[in-house]
């Protein structure tokens, strides 16, 4: 493995990121573009992969560089129905030619879409407010939760990511030590059944006890609970959509303490998990608030928060809230077209069937590898846990980086997840079909064989 295959774990570093010290190793054209980018954008922006991918255009589940080389996209969830989907593009173009304005004007398109979106939710969730990003949606959800409960305390999982506004970064531990959590934030362990059960604990009891302890610690410090917020796939924690059910008890405990349960569906929502529209439903629980992000518009900036209507009565009357172009005409048209495609192309059923194919295929390819501890997931959201050995379960980010970058060399794009970046993250657009899964499995088989031959995988 090259020195650059070792993940950069410095504060602020990004898992599966390009290391600027490797700049001179890039071809001249890419090196010049990176240098221009660094000068113009500054040091905060990051690039994927040891050798960054130059993107020229994309279609469906394929990305193309300027020379026309094609990459299989097994990572990008934002273009959820596929890159440059013609039905979405046409809806955007038609609306852009007519008008693009805000929700303070009466427009049937906004109301039509709101009613259609709400029809995918349980009856208890009856109002929607539009924003431009998932970060804004979570910010609004937290603001409403604090208004309604009178509390400030927030409970999140240990490596959660919920966004980048000041308020939401403060409840996103995955952003690292240089983005401190609020004093009103308590973390619970990730729902990592592999390690929890390896230690001899009952999983459901362990998670419930963790929530109770977080509530008790907030209360001991004089902080009233406002909310527990969770991404139902636990993507940043290492991808843990299963076991299901424990979120129901977590929500009950938080409500008993006076707080609300916010389901962050930015990543698992719109059928990605292959089991209904929304990830929370798999747990048999109805949230108080649900948030979603840019996948709802296939990348066009639209997001939303859905509420129990009673939560907005006093807030709506007393608080002046307005998001200038949240729910604008063009973004609403894009969102409506996304629902059309999910339904007409049966993408939720596709996520279920192709997800099963991937799970079974990856498990078969890695069954004899001592450094693959678990292949887990639901629908088109799969994590492959890489460790030094199955007994210790010590994380192995070096192996993860090697697989990710060798696949990138073969023009297959995945990434990594988890606090140590040791979990392969397989999360393609929902238009990913059986033939695409076959290609991923074939290329992964080749890469695993290469790593076995060098002794990096055994």
From TrEMBL:
Gene3D superfamilies: Aspartate Aminotransferase, domain 1, Type I PLP-dependent aspartate aminotransferase-like (Major domain). GO terms for molecular function: pyridoxal phosphate binding; transaminase activity. The keyword Transferase applies. InterPro entries: Aminotrans_3 (IPR005814), Aminotrans_3_PPA_site (IPR049704), PyrdxlP-dep_Trfase (IPR015424), PyrdxlP-dep_Trfase_major (IPR015421), PyrdxlP-dep_Trfase_small (IPR015422). It holds the Pfam family Aminotran_3. Keywords: Aminotransferase, Pyridoxal phosphate, Transferase. It comes from the Bacteria. The keyword Transferase applies. Residues 1-20 are annotated as: Disordered. Belongs to the class-III pyridoxal-phosphate-dependent aminotransferase family. PANTHER family: ALANINE--GLYOXYLATE AMINOTRANSFERASE 2-LIKE, PTHR45688. This is Aspartate aminotransferase family protein. The lineage of its organism: Bacteria, Bacillati, Actinomycetota, Actinomycetes, Bifidobacteriales.
